[in-house]
Every structure is written in structure tokens, then in C-alpha cells.
Amino acid sequence: MNQKNAIYIRRSVIFTIFDTNKRRINSMGVPVTYEAIKSGDIKAFENLFQELYPSMCAVAMRFITDRDAAEDIAQEAFIKLWEKRTTYKEIPCLKTFLYVSVKNLCFNYIRDKKVTIDYTSPEAQNQEAIFKDYLIEEEAYRIIDNAVNALPPQSARIVKMCLEGKQNKEIAEILDISVNSVKTLKYNALNVLRSSLKDYFYLLMLFLLGK
Fold this sequence. Notes:
Elements lengths: L2 H19 L12 H5 L3 H23 L2 H17 L10 H19 L9 H28 L3 H11 L4 H8 L3 H19 L2 H10 L2
């Protein structure tokens, strides 16, 4: 299987999983609510930032292809949320609110760069569709990353190194443990992830098999 086909299959699985699950709430952690942000809970805001900032940067960077600008845009989205936290009566989903803010800020960035864009053109509409696809893809990556980080430290390191393409022998040398220990820890970690990730576990296995 060539790389292009592998990427296509991986993306197709991501979107199928999201459609099947109807974006159900991730049970691995308590989500930050708008009520907490609105009341000025700085700790809740920090948790929200730590949870969503990386994926928002990645989405913005792919959309405008400028890392520094993407990071600025992601930060600005959070700043706007905090500064205007008492403006809105309610925000049912902070994640969606922030992602839409990033999208709008990306369009503003393109406009301010004085690039002529016809927002009703097929090209612009395709950009919008691509942006939505990236939101889904980045959210899937975030869910998997959170599940891996919830593992015991040694097990999490092993799974991350496997995702980087490292083999058992190399991992054993890095961690200064036996190859059998690596296999056992990886086996146990995958069993935990199968339970916590549910349908997303198949996507994790695609990532591992693709290395």
C-alpha cells in the first residue's frame, strides 16, 4: 500500500468513527464548561487551553501554512473567549466555539494579507470543507493522545515510541529494560487503550501498522 492510499484510508476511518459516535463526550476526563469560564475560573481556562491549543495550532497552520501566524491565531482565539466570556448567554460547546473562532481568524489573516478571495467561489467553499475535515482529524488525534498520556508513564513512553516507528529492541535499549518487558508493557497498554478508546482503538492500530 502506497503512502497516498494509506493516508486516504486513515482519513476515511477517522470520519467514519466520528459519524458513528456522533461526537460523544470523551469519558476520560471532565470537560471544561462555559459556566466555569464565564464565572472567571482561571484554572478551568488554563485546562481548556492545555487541552485544545495544540490541535487548534495544527488546524490553523494547515489552513494558512504559516506556523508563527497559526500560533498567534490560536492564542488570539483563547484571548477573545476570555475577554468576552460574559458577553454570551451560553456556549453549548467550547470546542466548536474555539474552532470556529480559529477559522474566522484564519480568513481575517488571509484578508489582511490582501489576498483576493471570492468566498462564494468553489475554491473558497473547498477551503471551508478542508478546514472542517482537519477539525475532525485533529480531534481524533487529540483523543488518542489523551488516552496514551493517561497510561502509566513507562507504558505511555513505549506506546509513543511505537508510534514514532521504533522497534521493541530499540525501545528496550532506550529504557534499559528487556525486550520481553517492552512486549508485556505494550500488550497491557494496548488492552487498556482498547477499552478506553473503544472505536478509536482501530484508528490507533492503523497508526501503529503504518509505521
